[in-house]
Amino acid sequence: EQTIKDRSVLLIPAFSIERTQELLYALNQILEHDLVTSCPIFLDSPMAIKATQLYRDFKEYLEFDESILKEPDRDFFSFKNLRETLTVDESKKINDTPPPKVIVAGSGMMSGGRIMHHLIRYLSDPKTTLLIIGYQAKGTIGRKIYEGAKRVVIFGEEVRVNARTIAIGAFSAHGDMNKLTRWLHPEDKQIPQKIFLVHGDLEAQEVFATHLRHELKTEVVIPEFQEKYTI
Question: What would the 3-class secondary structure string for the chain be?
């Protein structure tokens, strides 16, 4: 609504698999039930476009919070505002469309992909909104912007960060602590005797390790870089 009111640009970096489809589903619901607008929403990622088509082709295997498979169009990743820009030429023509407009592109951490070109073009505009919907790893441009950097270097070019940055965590595609705990303790199998945590920030690993030791009563190890273990 704010993007439409300001006649501005909303940039949403998103990963191509699952994250983009969750986002399209949410946008579909918003435009179907809450907001009537002709504002174009560009999906500017070849991988995401092709992956989304697979989701459409095999939608009977998807699980939803609500029983939406009975809806008339049975397509919850498409809406009349959606523009899929598969080719490079189609992507470049996004620039010819005046605001307001929404651009969804990869990569989700702003470490590559077509989102980089849009950042160069729109990040310095204070009317632009950058919506971060996924985890930003340390060292990535996404993490630098998330932590408040005033300038970032993209393709060797210094770009001022004047855009309004907003972050929401509801679109994480990773399992949370409870889901991972259930996965480690299936009903018909034994609990692992030793668990190695090798992914994620150290702070989160330490919290999760304490949780697993308490819940599963098993050994949990956070290996250090180049540390070796014999199983």
Answer: CHHHHHCCEEEEECCCCCHHHHHHHHHHHHHHHCCCCCCCEEECCHHHHHHHHHHHHCHHHCCCCCCCCCCCCCCCCCCCCEEECCCHHHHHHHHHCCCCEEEEECCCCCCCCCHHHHHHHHCCCCCCEEEECCCCCCCCHHHHHHCCCCEEEECCEEEECCCEEEECCCCCCCCCHHHHHHHHCCCCCCCCCEEECCCCCHHHHHHHHHHHHHHHCCEEECCCCCCCCCC
